[in-house]
Amino acid sequence: MRTIRLALAAALALGCPVAASADTWDVTVGPGNLFAPANLTIQAGDVVRWTNTGAIHNVVADDGSFTSGEPSGGAWVFSHTFPSAGSFPYHCSLHGAPGGVGMAGVVTVQGGGGGSPGSLRFSSAGYSVSETGGAATITVERVGGDDGAVSVQYATANGSAQAGSDYLATSGTLDWASGDDDARTFQVQILDDSLDEANETVQLSLSNPTGGAVLGSPAAATLTIVDDDEPAGSPGTLRFAAGAVSVSEGADMVSLTVVRDGGAIGAVSAQLTTADGTAVAGSDYVAFGQPVVFGDGDATAKVVHVMLIDDAIEESAETFSATLSAPSGGASLGSPSTATVTITDDDVSPICVADDHTLCLNQDRFRVRVTWVDFQGGTGQAFALPYTADSGFFYFFGPDNLEVLVKVLDACVPFERYWVFFAVASNVEYHIEVADTHHGLSKVYDNPPGVFAPATGDTDAFATCP
Fold first, then answer.
1. Does the global pTM surpass 0.90?
2. Which stretches of 252-374 are assigned E, i.e. beta strand?
3. pLDDT tens digits along 416-432
4. Measured between alpha carbons, how far is 8 from 297 in angstroms, rounded to an integer?
5. 400, CA 20 to 30 Å: which among 136, 147, 244, 269?
């Protein structure tokens, strides 16, 4: 609903000159998990007013540009003025998510030209692209007005980079129709070489605006080409590509990738050795202990396969570690030099049975277990503490120190999904396994050591409704 400004009507009736007046558009928050209307098309300078009907909600812009604050109930009112054109998605942080998930909407703002053709500028004074990136995408904006058709010319020029050997020179014209203030882009093609060199630059410029538009700031920008070639004369470092790997128990093997960074001079090697965690060599996997070898000039990643042993026992996810040691040929060990492999169980019982290490959530349909690995390599199963039908806690080392909150929500109506949410107050390595016992499916959420993981909401976790 748009609120008509009576002051403007009265001024016109008296013959008084007035400036253009903004409109106010009303959105009802609730009842239920809905904005009504969820989507609005307004003019620049208009106001949107959200009025809550009583449930616990809030309004948050996907890009963080406006918010009503933390979710709250009661008859609250929140207003926001939209001064410029654009698309502004928003959501309720409790019942939705960015990208139009759940309780969400979009405010589309038109106009804002104010009779001006506007100015044309780069979106940034600096851009960067890897030497192997293929192409850099450069964005040009129209701001401050959209009245009339306009255009501007763009061109590249050598900085420390040379056209023909480091990039392909390009030039052209970007056009906008009247009322169009969407950004335009052009690409600069990048040429890769095998030379170890400093980062190089390409100069970008805008010129000759038409239609009354002017050049804004910045009208000149720098594109930096970031070199990816290894320095000559170094044997490099050896490390795992990932510090944590998950694999289903039903797979034949798990693949571990060893990377050579920072140089490829000379033949080098490192010993790769596995060690038990909660998984045991001989019953869960086949122990491995062999060197990983790189030849002179060889920087191709090596893949090592560790064989797995399947069983028919329903059990928690189990872990073992793989470690690189004893580098040779002048190479050193990079980080991570140890990788933790989590073997997820593929023997999901059709019935969830709660115990000291297991939560049964959402009508006992979903089985949740957590395993951890500390900084000394110790590992174990977290202890479970039920809380509600849909949520519970885990602790690693003591019941007075809760580390994990997990909940599984039924979002089958209207999203046809079960959602998984969790938050962890620890920076040890952990693995959260959630299994749908009705369908025999499971998901594992991993966190490497030393990382404080943010709260996670997986709204696409299980498409297994009902």
1. no
2. 253-261, 268-276, 289-294, 302-307, 318-328, 332-333, 338-344, 359-361, 366-373
3. 999 999 999 999 889 89
4. 77
5. 244
